[in-house]
Amino acid sequence: MLICYACSSLAEQAAAQKATQTEKAKKKTVVTLIDPKRSQNAAIALARLKFTFEDIREKISSMDESAFTPDQLKNLEEFLPTAKEIRDLKAYKGDITELGKAEQYMYAMMGLPGAAKRMQCLVYKHSFKTRVFDLKETMSKLEGACDDVRTSAKFKKVLKTILKVGNALNDDADQVAFSIASLPTLSAAKAFDNKTSILAYVVMLIQKNDPVCLLFPDELSHTTAASRFPMELVTSEVSLLRKGLETCKRAIASIDAELSSAIGGLATLAATSSDCDGEEEEQEVEEEEEEEENRAGFAQFLINASSTTAELEQSSKSLVEKYSSLLEYFGEDSGLKCQDFFAVLSRFAAEFSTARDNIERQRKQEERREKAKLESEKRASTKAAKLAAAARAEVDNKNLTEMNLVTPTPTETAPTNAESTES
Asked: Residues 190, 198: contact at Cβ < 8 Å?
């Protein structure tokens, strides 16, 4: 009897173990309907999101960009189902939970009208504020550089000095202008003595005649930053913002048209269907109307974005005109790229500062050498004076000693007349 009981217990354990293995095998079974590689890539991208697929659908439907990063939105758009994948998903009659993660996501999203357009709009909205900020920063630097160069009185005086020196070096030529592009060559070209560079010579002249102009690089503070940004970058980015805005407007209009048609159809269907079916249809109508309200918030964003984009377009136009006016003022070719123009000025200002600092350092070194020389001469003079005084003292002492040796030694005093008479 004990043996039978043991056998029964073992049989039950085996059956339970087999049932567990079968259940695990069922759980491990994943139905794949799409390309395996695409399915794997989608699963990896979706694993980074902390929402259910229904939550993702709801947030995309309500145009809520705050839940996702731009990269996540782009991934979600990339793995929306294609027409073929939609057909395969509709043909599938099994349990949805047995599908792979990619298929489950596609299944949740395939019923959302204009899903791709919505995501593109959300990407645009998500990045709009940052793009506008960066664009304004770039425009501010370029505009600041234009104003620096145009209004710097010190820089103009430096240019005049360079022109005078250039004319003098060229046998008193009578040139009235020179190209900004020639400024960097001044540090290599030699002046009158064939030793000092023209730039160093110009610095020394300015130091002698108008030293305040030595500080002109401080007035061109924006040129270095401006040299990193092509004007085309500004105009192109403004154009892309406008293009993206118009794309979003068309997308929202298209989605609105689809939903208006769907809402109208559902309302008609609800009026002609049974009470039970009518309640379901009414619920769907309410959901569609709620979604329409959510899109109203995005529509307000589009209104604000339109105003901001229009301001940027005007600012961009003004900036281009300001730079063109600057080129004309300096007599430069109208096709000169702004990054090249400001790069030349930035380099010249840096080289001028270096030459100025080197000359100042040499001047201070010369002053220190001159001061040391004077102090050395003073010490030598003092030492010579001390030696002369010591020599004179020694001579005086020697003369005094000799005088003492020549003077007679005192002897016995001769008797006076009185003393003689008494004797």
From this structure: yes
Burial per residue of 318-331, b for 16 or more beta-carbon CB atoms within 10 angstroms, e otherwise: ebeeebeebbeeee
Report residue 222: phi and psi, to 5°.
Answer: -90, -10
Q: What is the pTM of this model?
A: 0.72
- Who contacts 150 (Cβ-Cβ below 8 Å, separation ≥6)? 326, 329
Are the C-beta atoms of residues 49 and 104 closer than 8 Å to each other?
no
Residue 395's pLDDT is 86
Phi-psi region of 385 (alpha: psi -120 to 50; beta: other; left: phi over 0): alpha
Point out which residues pair with 99 in neighbouring strands: 31
Encode pLDDT of 365-387 as tens digits.
988 888 888 888 888 888 888 88
Q: In angstroms, what is the C-alpha Rg of the chain?
A: 48
Q: What is the pLDDT of residues 95-121, one digit of tens each?
A: 999 999 999 999 999 988 889 999 999
* Sequence-ordered list of residues with C-beta below 8 angstroms from that of 361, at least 6 positions apart, any chain: none
| Of 144, 136, 122, the residue nearest 70 (C-alpha) | 122
N- to C-terminal Cα separation, the chain: 186
CA distance 195 to 188: 10
pLDDT band at 279 (very low <50, low <70, confident <90, very high): low
CA distance 262 to 257: 9
pLDDT tens, position by position, 246-270: 999 999 888 877 766 554 444 444 4
Angstrom distance (rounded) from CA 103 to CA 109: 10
The 3-state secondary structure of 19-43 reads HHHHHHHHHHCCECCCCHHHHHHHH
pLDDT value at 163 more than 70: yes
82: pLDDT strictly greater than 70: yes
